[in-house]
């Protein structure tokens, strides 16, 4: 009786294993010799878990771009989309699947910089070009020759934001507040701190918080007591929105300069009118209405997905177009040729503006500096 | 000086919410000898319910508050019926089984919450959240006072109920010795169910207060609060009502002052440091008695 | 069959082996009646020690892993001794607290651990072997990755296999009998002359060692670690493996870890509900079969037949 039970368990386990294998039989074998056949591009995105908001936006951008590219006819792109749930280990498993089972030509993603730390070396060592469209930490493209990025890193965005704020508000003393247990918020903080020091600002106090906290009163009270001219805050939008709200409530009225985490319409949902005076730098400002390409993109996106595109969708959209452009230039699905074509992209006309890779395969662009007023972002003049 | 008072108010308000959470934990431990690791998740559900009632349905705050308490109470009932009671029916389970079972419940609840409410923070605007006034140099938020008043009231009510009412005494009898209590005519099953439900209600109430105090909820607050609740009852003494209250206030003050005068990076970890220190020095905690609900 | 020699599946195999080690880390103290939720802490300790030794001090990988194991064993003793006076639930919480405090130390001690940013570009355990094979022209750039992944898997397999064999072989020894006695009734065990302190601390330090080795190997498998890899959630996962698989037998831990690592990959489409299932497993197992799936009874019955 018991033997039967043990056998049953083994049978179930083995069949599940086999079942999961069946699902991964690659669809097309061998290399694609000419670009009229399908080019397989792997997408790694966080479609579940806490980063799903970003991930879904990104995948929407890719999907829209792919349909337009395929409609234009010169190239036929097949997207193979995998969910990493924002977890590094899963991202690593998924990239191995894309490289070994699906045999993709190139990869776009992953969503988080932390995932890239595992995924990047894997792709690089396999000679597969990988383009990050949402990583903003430092050192991403240093991972290897095959690693590219079109998402503006904090190391460019933050100094711009701070400089512009100083110009406008004559800031001399700043307080700093950051999440010390999260890779982005810490990395953005490091940039903020070195920028502040380089610009000769006086740092009145540095306070920290941890993920998931909803009570910042103690730290904010302390910050208020040091009378800063501005608050440099590095947080993701969940904590960021609450911080803004509580800061205004206890009487901190000075401008708040935020990192990329604040760059989201969710800030307005959470903080409401407390968000007035928030300053962020962003590569994507959809109100820059002069560019017809941008308007076209926004309306197509809204029609397809019911909401306006955010920076993640925009960077993803441009990312796929840049990749397609490189594949066309390379003339084949040869990964080395594609890599070289990517590296030489200059002044590509995208919805983010004129895009170029610098000699480190990183972003070479200037951001917009925005300030929040009445639950909307506008250019900081 | 006024900064000190502002931080003091912050600390005591925080502490009063912590006490309320710890009360629920300590009651369950006292009566069942079980550390309810799902308490934090129940707390979080209470908070989310209230926020949704007020923000999405537009109903007044007290309805949200009640809604939060009721949902938490129901979850407590489910916890008792489906996870804890089956365990009591088996005679020779190790004491770790209920602990592991409640960990399981907390995982279930946390993930259902994520599926239902999403991972994002939801803001909680109430009619009183924006009212501040000044007492001399000191900035005071009305909401802090409301929270203090509500948690204080609930705590005192609980205290007197335990000490003086018939059902309160029954609860204490069961916690002392369930067999003797049954022998003396107490319906132990009913008492246990009632304890878990009211403890969970208290947890839910604390959750709503937290949402009010900090204007937002997200699904990480459950775990953090559950672990802090643990720290408090270990500090105060598991099963001791006085301990829960004292411990809660002490933790609130400790967290606030470590930020005000020390390094705010240690705010969340203070709870754990307390746990380790107490377990090393005096595992029974300040008010010393284990396994009994003592007032 | 050759399609199985594919990095994706090998990767899952490698993660399974690491999870088996973590499950053992819970099983061993549990066999003396101690519930340790500090596995994630020791895992992190092992991972960081090894990663730092290799990336910052340039030590060779095997050396670094051994050091990581050794230091963590000492840490295990340091935690195990004061924990002797704690029973059941209190012990579980103390170990949980330990795990969290260690994690915060990783975050705070930025200069040496990199803080929340973590440590990247950690060399893989297969690095030396791959280099050798490439020089000997046995492999080239087209199969370098698979070779590397395979090497990693084999090394993990050997080490995990050793641990499992060790604890299975332990079964009819004095140590195992003492542990079982302690688990059932400490006072009685003491009264018949068993040195319960010795066995309990021994179990604890063994757990620390295994978890630390698992951590060090993890660091050299994924090449990037950060404090958020070693949270309370991971300790609870290891607990689930052991509880489901069978807390009374070594192979129970192996079974639980294997099944619960592989099935989620097969059940990808369940996404977030995967964890609801995990939680439900815990509750149901405790209510109906707290000993887990693999128990001594199964082996006894098989042997009888």
Strand portion of chain B, in percent? Answer: under 5%
Q: What is the CATH architecture assignment of chain B?
A: Orthogonal Bundle
Tell me the span between the first and last alpha carbons of chain B.
Answer: 36 Å
Estimate the helix proportion of chain C, in percent.
Answer: over 70%
- Poorly predicted regions of chain B: none
| Secondary-structure element order of chain B, N to C | HHHHEEEHHHHEHHH
Could you tell me how far the N terminus lies from the C terminus of chain C, measured between alpha carbons in angstroms? 33 Å
Number of domains of chain C: 1
User: What is the overall silhouette of chain C?
Assistant: globular
The secondary structure category of chain B is mainly alpha
Kindly provide the radius of gyration of chain B, computed on alpha-carbon positions and rounded to a whole number of angstroms: 19 Å
Instruction: Tell me the major beta sheet of chain C.
Output: none
Mean pLDDT of chain B: 83
Structural features, described:
The complex is a heterotrimer of chains A (about 375), B (about 300) and C (about 300). With about 375 residues, chain A is of the alpha/beta class. Chain A folds into 2 domains: about 30-150 and about 290-355, Rossmann fold (3-Layer(aba) Sandwich), CATH 3.40.50; about 155-280, Rossmann fold. Chain A contains 12 helices and 14 strands. In chain A, helix 3 (about 90-100) packs parallel to helix 4, helix 5 crosses helix 6 and helix 11 (about 310-330) crosses helix 12. The longest helix of chain A has 21 residues, at about 1-20. The model of chain A is unreliable at about 1-5 and about 15-35 (pLDDT under 50). Chain B is mainly alpha-helical and about 300 residues long. Helices cover about 75% and strands about 5% of the residues of chain B. In chain B, helix 1 packs antiparallel against helix 10, helix 5 (about 140-165) packs antiparallel against helix 8 (about 190-215) and helix 9 crosses helix 10. The longest helix of chain B is centred in the first third of the chain and has 31 residues, at about 1-30. Chain B starts with a helix and ends in a 14-residue tail after the last helix. Chain C is an all-alpha fold. Chain C has one domain. Helices cover about 75% and strands about 0% of the residues of chain C. Chain C is built from 14 helices and no strands. Chain C has helices at about 5-30, 40-55, 60-85, 90-110, 110-115, 125-135, 145-170, 175-185, 185-190, 195-220, 230-245, 250-265, 275-290, 295-305. Chain C starts with 6 loop residues before the first helix and ends with a helix.
